[in-house]
Q: What sequence folds into this?
């Protein structure tokens, strides 16, 4: 018996006395640089070690037989090797780990594109920027006008990109189209975007050469991603000199619901601050929003957003056709917008995105006694599938359906004229991203569109490529064809039209290092098939066709520096453009009135720690724009004044949950003029009478107070109030 | 003789039963003892690797993941790293937190580490991220305190957060000093579930109390 136990103990001892196997080696990256801190271990065992400063390691293991050795390091693909452990030393010499391609380290295509998101490396403009870039007063589109490639067109407020007019720019929220992204306003006054920048956590603003995923836009695409699920119960109160907003959020484990009610009325403000525009009823609006988020499964997120808005205004304008008299312009706008999307990983490396949007917009205008109604109903459904074949090859495929019904009516008119058209557009797109290495990417795509109203289809190729030059610089090139339906007012009369077309070539250089970014871009755009209309030579019939054409080329520069000045940052944006067009009722090629040759924006922001304040100032300049004077022989031959505006804003963090906000635009009171409007017929003296198109007021002031009450805090706040 | 045999057998059974577990505790203990000596990125990376090796073997245990994530978050607080590098380390931590939340969905300490992770993410770029991450920090601390109202680390994070805010806005910090003192007094009353369960934080609270005294 004793003997047995002895033997048993001996065998136990043997287990731990087994000779160890020693594995040695060196871990390197593709450039032969040693990797320090790589993790080396035997699968399923506690035997592991870390590489030293020279990348070398010694791993000792008492395991026996066939085992798997793993080497892992952040940012690199894992390395595995079968080893046979028999007590004899194993020398692996040099092991080279391959760099893993991921969004943060690999080259991305930047031609034409500004991207912003939490972790995007080249953040151009975040939602915070949109609020603190003064002059914009929290308007998404106003803030984008501080980026190169855009032109400030004061009498519109919409996006005009690289020689394109505003309807060539489209806005998408969570992948689906927003048919009416701007609010309504009286003629020749600036509009604002319908959506608050705070709704969004990411954006992609492309001024050309965009992916095959986007269509129906000749000039630019703004794609906005709304916030993810809210995790805290909150009550938000905004008090502004022009209105108030109240929002509440309820959150659960896997869902959140936010509802907002807002009311704006500019009457008190406009009574106090002198206006150029004469108002019979100052603009006012009432809106209600509902937003719901639901996490589904492990990675899915369902988003739902819906907003309903009514706004109205009545302005009084001088009647140029009957000097001395005036006309009133009354507008009531009703807008309903719904947007829902679901994105989730349906299988490993397969991401499905679905989206649906619905817009119902009604503008009821009354010009004196003449009534004009415009009604738009639109839907957009989108389904796309992204498959990551490997870290080097990704494929995106999708299909969309657009439905649009647009109608115009004159309810007061005796004849009861009205017109309507309905268009269904079906699209398909396919695109692949190929990485030759982490330094070189090519994206090739194609987009197909068919319109049942026009009975036409288009096929648009898109190709772009980017290459890293050194650690901080990269160059990218994009080429593509872009198609768009003619404007509603033409489609209303005839379906006998073609798609309008623009071809883009964009060459971009980006340098991004240590919080400093330089972006320069050269581009050329060629327009064809633009809609033209007018009288035939004999003046006996009107024509409308697709013989319009044009071009634009230019240089965009953008420099942003967050490093040189402590607590401060600035950016400089400059655009130069040469463009000519012959479209609409132009008698000849001319520089369109929305284009100014030079555009400059200087933005500076400074954080004053002691005052818990963000001070921002900006200066915008646009060179004179052309406009047409019917009294002159030359078409589009007159020039406006150059546009200057110096703006300031101040955000003060009063308490953790209270922000005070002040902004003033055009502090110095530069005279701004956006053109000249003319009578439709000449007076008795044969001269068309006119008046300048001016901004609504010389300056714009806004004071606001934003209060957030979260669950814990709200108790404190309520205690104080009681 | 028989007795001896029985005793040896019992010992053997116990050893075999404890076998894996004992090694787990031993390896965790070894790794944890190195925590205090870590000061550089390399040190913490080294230590994170050790926890990784343990986690690879003990696939049902959340503690190795917890400490590995802790190492990466601590790295993200270090100077000399670019925002991009910090985010890369935090992404690692985020993936670990996701896995351990699956293993231990009702564990207060997991929520504490989640709050700590969001704090790390906030610190990378406060003006840009304050608005999105602050609610996430609050939510994680609140969740932890629901799961375990007396969890000292959750209480510590809450006090230090609120105190930081109060002092930033020039408000009275005395109530938080009192809370910190109370927390310190009760610190040792909290019983750890095992010697390898999280126990950090006492020094930090002592620091707060010391500052209050001045």
A:
């Amino acid at each position: 018996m004793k003997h047995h136990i002895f033997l048993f103990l001996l065998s136990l001892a043997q287990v731990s006395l087994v000779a160890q196997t020693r594995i040695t080696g060196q871990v390197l990256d593709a450039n032969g640089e040693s990797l320090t801190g790589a993790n080396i271990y035997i699968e399923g065992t506690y035997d592991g070690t870390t590489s030293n400063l020279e990348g070398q390691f010694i791993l000792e293991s008492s395991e026996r037989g066939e085992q798997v050795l793993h080497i892992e390091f952040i940012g690199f693909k894992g390395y595995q090797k079968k080893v046979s452990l028999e007590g004899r030393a194993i020398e692996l010499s040099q092991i080279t780990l391959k760099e893993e391609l991921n969004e943060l380290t690999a080259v991305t295509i930047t031609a034409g594109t500004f991207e912003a998101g939490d972790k995007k490396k080249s953040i151009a403009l975040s939602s915070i920027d949109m609020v603190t870039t003064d002059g914009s007063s929290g308007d998404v589109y106003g803030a984008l006008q501080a980026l190169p490639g855009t032109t400030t067109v004061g009498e519109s407020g919409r996006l005009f990109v690289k020689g394109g007019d505003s309807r060539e720019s489209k806005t998408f929220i969570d992948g689906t189209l927003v048919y009416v992204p701007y609010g309504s306003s009286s003629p020749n006054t600036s509009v604002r975007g319908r959506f608050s920048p705070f709704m969004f956590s990411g954006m992609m603003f492309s001024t050309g050469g965009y992916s095959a995923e986007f269509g129906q836009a000749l000039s630019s695409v703004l794609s906005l991603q709304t916030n993810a699920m809210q995790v805290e119960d909150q009550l938000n109160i905004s008090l502004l000199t022009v209105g108030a907003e109240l929002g509440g959020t309820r959150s659960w484990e896997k869902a959140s619901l936010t509802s907002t009610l807002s009311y704006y009325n500019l009457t008190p403000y406009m009574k106090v601050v002198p206006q150029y525009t004469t108002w019979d009823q100052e603009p006012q609006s009432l809106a209600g929003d509902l937003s719901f988020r639901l996490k589904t499964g492990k990675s899915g997120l369902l988003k739902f957003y819906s907003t309903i808005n009514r706004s109205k205004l009545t302005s009084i304008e001088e009647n140029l056709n009957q000097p001395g008299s005036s006309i009133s312009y009354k507008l009531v706008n009703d807008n309903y917008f719904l947007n829902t999307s679901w994105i989730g990983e349906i299988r490993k490396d397969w991401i499905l995105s679905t989206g649906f949007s619905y817009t119902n917009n009604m503008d009821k205008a009354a010009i004196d006694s003449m009534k004009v109604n415009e009604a738009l109903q639109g839907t957009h459904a989108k389904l796309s599938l992204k498959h990551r074949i490997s870290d080097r090859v990704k494929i995106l495929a999708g299909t969309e359906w657009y439905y649009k019904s647009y109608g115009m009516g004159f309810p007061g008119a005796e004849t009861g004229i009205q017109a309507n058209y309905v268009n269904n557009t079906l699209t398909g797109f396919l695109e692949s991203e190929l990485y030759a290495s982490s330094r070189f990417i090519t994206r090739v795509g194609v987009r197909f569109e068919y319109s049942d109203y026009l009975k036409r289809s288009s096929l648009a190729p898109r190709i772009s490529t980017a290459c890293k030059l050194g650690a901080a610089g990269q160059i990218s090139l994009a080429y593509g064809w872009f198609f768009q339906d003619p404007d509603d007012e033409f489609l209303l009369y005839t379906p006998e039209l073609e798609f309008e077309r623009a071809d883009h070539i964009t060459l971009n250089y980006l340098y991004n290092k240590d919080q400093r970014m330089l972006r320069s871009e050269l581009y050329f755009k060629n327009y064809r098939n633009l809609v033209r209309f007018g009288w035939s030579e004999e003046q006996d019939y009107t024509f409308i066709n697709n013989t319009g054409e044009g071009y634009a080329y230019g240089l965009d520069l953008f420099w942003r520096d967050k490093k040189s000045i402590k607590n401060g940052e600035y950016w400089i944006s400059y655009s130069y453009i040469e463009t000519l067009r012959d479209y609409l009722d132009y008698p000849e090629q001319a520089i369109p009135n929305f284009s100014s040759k030079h555009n400059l924006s200087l933005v500076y922001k400074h954080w004053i720690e002691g005052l818990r304040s963000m001070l921002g100032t900006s200066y915008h300049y646009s060179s004179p724009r052309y406009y047409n004077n019917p009294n002159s022989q030359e078409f589009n031959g007159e020039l406006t004044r150059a546009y200057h505006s110096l703006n300031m804003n101040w955000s003060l963090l009063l308490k953790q949950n209270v922000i005070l906000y002040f902004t003033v635009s055009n502090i110095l009171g530069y005279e701004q003029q956006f053109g000249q409007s003319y009578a439709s017929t000449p007076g008795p003296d044969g001269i068309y009478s006119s008046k300048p198109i001016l901004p609504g007021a010389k300056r714009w002031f806004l004071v606001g107070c934003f209060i957030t009450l979260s669950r814990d805090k709200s108790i404190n706040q309520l205690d104080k109030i009681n | 003789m028989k007795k001896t045999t029985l005793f040896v057998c019992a010992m053997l059974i116990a050893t075999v039963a404890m076998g894996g577990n004992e090694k787990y505790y031993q390896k965790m203990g070894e790794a944890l003892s190195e925590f205090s000596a870590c000061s550089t990125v390399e040190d913490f990376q080294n230590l994170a690797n050790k926890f990784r090796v343990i986690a690879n073997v003990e696939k049902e245990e959340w503690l190795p993941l917890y400490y590995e994530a802790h190492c990466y978050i601590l790295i993200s607080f270090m100077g000399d790293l670019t925002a991009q590098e910090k985010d890369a380390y935090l992404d690692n931590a985020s993936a670990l937190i996701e896995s351990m939340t699956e293993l231990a969905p009702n564990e207060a300490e997991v929520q504490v580490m989640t709050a700590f992770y969001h704090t790390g993410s906030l610190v990378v770029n406060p003006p840009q991220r304050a608005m999105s991450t602050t609610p996430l920090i609050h939510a994680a601390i609140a969740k932890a305190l629901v799961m375990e109202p007396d969890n000292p680390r959750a209480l510590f994070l809450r006090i230090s957060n609120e105190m930081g805010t109060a002092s930033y806005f020039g408000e009275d910090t005395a109530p938080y000093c009192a809370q910190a003192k109370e927390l310190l007094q009760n610190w040792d009353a909290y019983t750890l579930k095992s010697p390898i369960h999280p126990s950090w934080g006492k020094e930090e609270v002592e620091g707060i109390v010391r500052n209050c005294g001045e």
Summary: Residues 126 and 133 of chain B are 9 Å apart (CA to CA). Chain B is about 75% helix and 0% strand. Residues 40-148 of chain B form a domain with the Serine Threonine Protein Phosphatase 5, Tetratricopeptide repeat fold (CATH 1.25.40).
